[in-house]
Design brief:
heterodimer, A: 289 residues, alpha+beta, Uridine Diphospho-n-acetylenolpyruvylglucosamine Reductase, domain 3, four-stranded antiparallel β-sheet, 14 strands, 34% helix, B: Aldehyde Oxidoreductase, domain 4, five-stranded mixed β-sheet, globular
Chain lengths: 289, 745
């Protein structure tokens, strides 16, 4: 029954100042699709809410001069889907973001919130990791950039330090012959939470994989970058042995738990299956570019 | 049966509640507010099983804003040694379910309740209640609960002379099963398990109760029976029924789960103590933790048949979870299991088993899906062993007019054979299947019900008609009653308004359940309409100054007949209504009956599935339900019932289940992790209505709402077998379990 203060600053500096001054009592509000649910359930009781949707840098999508994208952390899934180019260049990232919640939730939910929520099962995170996305963070000590996979620290936790706010994602320019894909296992067909999620991004040159990244979700305390799986694909022509080796690397990377959403045995097996299926889709998309 | 021209009966008229529901204007129970209203919240047990040593509410009462506190001491005490029945519910258990008395029997069991000026203060005050518990060992699963050394929930329950968690037994017998099996060429016996599943209604339980200073109470609530709410609340609070007016709100789904009360008696006492209207609304989590799912089960079914496919004996032993207090639907399981078949030797036994889970509540054909699941899966194996088509096996043994069922009755005209023949002839049954796809079939039976109903049919001064019945409309009863009334009076459907009365404005009507409502209310509405027509003819005769016997009622108008035919221009209902005052007063009639003659419902389902062998996901590709619907008074609603049952069956078979942690706490109390199917999980659910009118009903009505949930569990299970070549004996067939079986783990 404590009162909650609500701030909607127009500048990042103001937001960071208020966030740092609140010393842990504040929560950042982007779409609110996690925060408001946690507050209703009583698991979050912030003394202050800082709404970042008035800050233009956090709600805009820009194509960078080199052909990459900068996506504000509070950009909703629906706005990303409406962008004329983003989904053509990064179809896997877009489908991962658009898998979060329902149509109504898509009007609010953001990739930034998905990452900062710290869930190992966040759908956009494996796809962002596979894409090689880098996040810009601003805090009391200025700006810094780190790769997406360096943000999660464990279930519900991130490596952001007190007062720091996630500002945006930067996705690199896309060489010719590149494709990405994200697949998740859910018992239903929608409105569900990933039991395993796999993001694959790769570049093909004359049928040979020249670059690849694999992100793996819901099988460890944090979403993982699986270098072993990428290494198995790089240099191959995606022959069965290479793809099986990549699947094996995914299975080996799993450190899952038995819980209401899936068993250890099941999750490990599915990680390999989804790697293969996502790789096939990414390769198909790479071939068409 | 009345001669009817079927202008409106069988017509897909616009549903009377449609516009309000689509536009959000419909008033559900939590939409009702009152000046001065305060909020009630329930403190629930954090333990699965504990003795309540003391409850200290002093700190909570001291919190500013708190207006009243209720504990079990405020409810009428029902001693354990004396049963007090209301319908099928025993008030000893109902009172202890509404508020724990001696012990907390499940995680989420209400311990106390608070009313305060805001919901937040009430919740805060609940946290200030100090309860001293003596934690006891708990038992959740059936197989554990029936072990000799299991923690015992209730010392007073004895089975075989010893304290036990087996609270009851029911047996049906026909012929001699041992002799029957001795004459069988093929005998198959299998054991099955199902998990508890929730009705999943969208609207949580909620109510608003106001008690005036002279002690009269008004209850607005969402239920399947305002008269049930009045009676149960009266019994549990000690108020006479005449001091309680229960007003039914628009209901956001019930499926059986709203045939008992949870909040109303508590809110009433809070309102009485505080002098303020009290509103209570459960959260979804409370709905899962503390309102009734249906039972989980263990069963063993044995069926014997001769080489030519004649079933000679069937035996079924069923253990059903009751939750923390007795009362699982063993009658539905044991009674419906073999009911579709003409088998000379049948024995079914049901055991009612308590454990530290929330008390079960009715769920669409309570117990019958569990009964049919085991029988219909074993029948699939019998058909396979005999190299017989599974539908032909069912056809050969189908119950018909004159068949004596093990649960008692001899069937009158029934349409079970028709459902099988329609399934055999349907293109779905012959459609080609792809790789990893399979087709399963199953049949099912539900008793249906009649019972008490009241109706009032009034003609308005401007020549329209208002019909009032006493049943909350969960399945289209208003639309169907409008069709029946328009047909009988011969007037346009748009001239008929159908309303649901409250306990003060319409006579006693039993609750909406057992697929009874249209059967019973169409009967009392028919008799009321007949009386209205008699009056209309009398008034016309008076105006024409002829004998009432010389007037007929046709196409919504009175016509002079016999010797007077053609002597006067016909008079419409509106013309007679306009002269009502001068010809004798208002025109209307009401009828109250304990209706008899409800006959059973039968269905046969075909289901196609595809299995993803790597992920273990089973998807339903095609589903067709064939049902004897008696007379489809409003076909769109009948189809909706058939589709709804199939959809719920798909969830039960593939994804829904209650999961508990090691402390006996439900681990998936939200729609995120309690996996009901979403729309995109389902194909179009096809329906084939077969009309074999019930000879004992004026319109031929049979209940249609519940039998659609009886066949799906086995139809889907059999389809999965035919896709994979491996049989599953346990539900749900969730992806990890499917992979376990496929990978032989």
């Amino acid at each position: 029954m404590t009162d909650i203060r609500y701030l909607a600053p127009r500048t990042l500096e103001e937001a960071v100042g208020a966030f740092a001054a609140a010393a842990g009592a504040a929560r950042i509000l982007a779409g609110g699709t996690d925060l408001l649910v946690q507050m209703r359930a009583g698991s979050a009781r912030p003394g202050m809410i800082i709404d970042i949707k008035q800050i233009s840098e956090m709600t805009s999508i820009e194509e960078t001069a080199d052909g990459g994208f900068r996506i504000g952390a509070a950009v909703s899934g629906a706005v990303m889907a409406e962008h004329p180019r983003f989904g053509q260049v990064w179809p896997g990232v877009l489908e991962a973001v658009n898998l979060i919640g329902s149509t109504q939730v898509q009007g609010r939910a953001s990739a930034g919130g998905n990452l900062c929520n710290g869930s190992p099962a966040g759908d956009s995170v494996p796809a962002m990791i596979a894409a090689g996305a880098v996040v810009t963070i601003q805090g009391p000590n200025g700006r810094r950039q780190i790769p997406v996979e360096a943000v999660p620290a464990g279930p519900g936790r991130t490596t952001l330090t007190p007062g720091e706010i996630l500002v945006s994602f930067t996705l690199p320019p896309r060489p010719k012959g590149s494709g990405d894909a994200y697949l998740r296992m859910i018992p239903r067909t929608e409105m569900d939470i990933a039991v395993v999620g796999v993001g694959v991004s790769l570049t093909l040159e004359n049928g040979t994989v020249t670059a690849a990244r694999v992100g793996l979700g819901a099988v460890a305390p944090t979403v993982l970058l699986v270098a072993g799986a990428a290494n198995a694909l790089i240099g191959s022509k995606l022959d069965d042995a290479a793809v099986e080796a990549a699947a094996a690397a995914c299975r080996a990377a799993c450190r899952p738990i038995d819980d209401k959403r899936g068993t250890i045995v099941y999750r490990i097996k599915v990680a390999g299956v989804l790697l293969k299926r996502a790789t096939a889709i990414a390769a198909d998309r790479a071939g068409k570019v | 049966m009345n001669v009817i021209n079927n202008k409106w009966i069988g017509s897909r008229t616009i549903r009377p509640d449609g516009a309000d529901k689509v536009t959000g204007r419909a008033s559900y129970s939590s939409d009702t507010n009152m000046p001065g209203m305060i909020w009630g919240k329930v403190l629930r047990s954090p333990h699965a099983h504990a003795r309540i040593v003391s409850v200290d509410t002093s700190k909570a009462e001291a919190l500013p804003g708190v207006k009243a506190v209720v504990t079990s001491k405020d409810l009428v005490e029902f001693p354990l040694d004396t049963a007090v029945m209301l319908g099928i519910q025993d008030m000893r258990w109902m009172s202890r379910n509404v508020m724990a008395r001696e012990k907390a029997l499940f995680h989420g069991h209400p311990i106390a309740a608070i009313a305060a000026t805001t919901e937040a203060i009430a919740a805060e005050a609940c946290r200030l209640i100090v309860v001293e518990y003596e934690i006891l060992p708990h038992v959740i699963e059936l197989e554990e609960a029936i072990k000799p050394d299991a923690p015992i929930l209730h010392d007073f329950i004895q089975f075989d002379g010893k304290p036990s968690n087996i609270a009851g037994k029911l047996e049906h017998k026909l012929g001699d099963v041992d002799a029957g099996f001795a004459g069988a060429d093929v005998i198959i016996e299998r054991s099955f398990k199902t998990r508890p599943v929730h009705q999943g209604y969208l609207e949580p339980h909620s109510c608003l109760v106001s008690v005036s200073s002279d002690g009269k109470a008004v209850i607005w609530s969402s239920s399947q029976g305002q008269f049930m709410v009045r009676a149960m609340t009266g019994l549990l609070t000690g108020l006479p029924q005449s001091d309680i007016r229960a007003i039914p709100a628009e209901i956001g789904g019930g499926f059986g789960g709203k045939t008992i009360v949870y909040l109303e008696p508590v809110a009433l006492i809070l309102a009485k103590k505080s002098g303020r209207p009290v509103k209570m609304v459960m959260t979804r989590e409370e709905v899962f933790r503390a309102s009734g799912p249906t039972s989980g089960s263990m069963s063993t079914v044995k069926i014997g048949a001769t080489k030519d496919g004649k079933i000679v004996a069937g035996q079924g032993i069923y253990y059903l979870q009751a939750g923390a207090l007795p009362g699982s639907p063993i009658r539905g399981a044991a009674g419906c299991a073999f009911a579709p078949y003409d088998i000379p030797n049948v024995q079914t036994v049901g055991f009612d088993v308590v454990s530290n889970r929330s008390k079960v509540a009715a769920y669409r054909a309570p117990g019958a899906p569990i009964g049919a699941y085991a029988v219909e899966c074993v029948l699939d194996e019998i058909a396979e062993a005999l190299k017989m088509d599974p539908l032909e096996l069912r056809l050969k043994n189908a119950a018909k007019q004159g068949t004596k069922a093990a649960h008692g009755p001899v069937y009158p005209v029934i349409g079970f054979v028709d459902t099988i023949e329609a399934a055999l002839a349907h293109p779905h049954y012959k459609a080609p299947l792809g790789k990893h796809q399979g087709r399963g079939v199953a049949s099912g039976f539900w008793f249906n019900a009649g019972g008490e109903s009241s109706a009032q049919v009034n003609v308005t001064e401007d020549g329209n008609v208002v019909v009032t019945t006493g049943h909350p409309d969960v399945g289209g009863s208003r639309a169907a009653i409008a069709n029946v009334t328009a047909e009988l009076l011969g007037i346009d459907h748009k001239k008929v308004s159908v309303l649901i009365g409250d306990t003060a404005t319409i006579g006693y009507s039993n609750l909406t359940g057992g697929s009874r409502v249209l059967f019973a209310s169409a009967m009392v509405v028919t008799q009321s309409a007949d009386k209205v027509i008699t009056t209309l003819k009398e008034r016309a005769a008076k105006i024409w100054k002829i004998d009432p016997e010389a007037v007929t009622w046709e196409d919504g108008e009175a016509r002079p007949a016999g010797a007077n035919a053609g002597q006067f221009p016909p008079m419409t209902l509106a013309q007679i209504a306009a002269k009502a005052s001068e010809t004798g007063g208002p025109i209307g009639a009401g009828v109250q009956l304990n209706t008899q003659g409800a006959e059973g419902g039968f269905a046969t389902h075909i289901c196609d599935v595809e299995v993803d062998l790597d992920l273990g996901i089973v998807r339903v590709l095609r589903y067709t339900s064939f049902q004897d619907v008696g007379r489809a008074v409003h076909p769109a609603y009948v189809e909706g019932q058939m589709q709804g049952g199939a959809a719920q069956g798909i969830g039960w078979a593939l994804s829904e289940e209650y999961l508990y942690d090691k402390n006996g706490k439900m681990d998936n109390a939200s729609f995120l992790d309690y996996r009901m199917p979403v729309c995109s999980d389902l194909p179009m659910l096809d329906t084939v209505m077969i009309e074999v009118p019930n000879p004992k009903h004026p319109q031929g009505v049979r209940g249609v709402g519940e039998v659609p949930l009886v066949p799906p569990l086995a139809a889907i299970s059999n389809a999965v077998y035919h896709a994979l070549g491996k049989r599953f004996y346990s539900l749900p067939m969730s992806p990890p379990r499917v992979l376990e079986v496929l990978d032989g783990v």
